[in-house]
Amino acid sequence: ECLRAGHWEGLDAAALAGVVSALVYEPRRDEAPSHAPPAPCRAALDKTLRTWADLGEVEARHRLDTLRRPDAGLAWSMHRWASGASLETVLDDGEVLPGDFVRWCKQLVDLLGQIAGADGTPVAAVATQAAALVRRGVVAYG
Q1: Would you tell me how many other CB atoms lie within 10 Å of the CB of residue 114?
Q2: From 137's CA, which of 27, 60, 62, 87 has a CA 20 to 30 Å away?
Q3: CA nearest neighbour of 35 among 70, 69, 97, 78
Q4: Count of CB atoms within 10 A of residue 39's CB?
Q5: How confident is the model over 63-87, as pLDDT tens digits?
């Protein structure tokens, strides 16, 4: 729905990685992220959450299971990682465990690949770039 509505158009690759990470990230406990999402991600994340809420209303009307709420708790760390920050910096800044971070990166790369495969969307090429930026270092070899 976010692709169709154009919510992610205009984002650079690092910002797209940050925004889309909200769809794969599941925090271990209910706590506020240590950092707010970076500025380039905020408007797209707000639109993504509104879309989720709209879908939730439709699901409720039709008595369907609801989708898990996107969580922007990894957006800051993923944006930094896709921008070239070291793993040590990302882990220190985001208070994320290494194994969890690598797992979420791999899930994010998979989802970005699916977005890239959505031919005809302006976001497809950016998703390909974002996946390449995330798939480096320990993520590429782990």
Answers
A1: 11
A2: 27
A3: 78
A4: 9
A5: 888 778 899 999 999 999 999 999 9
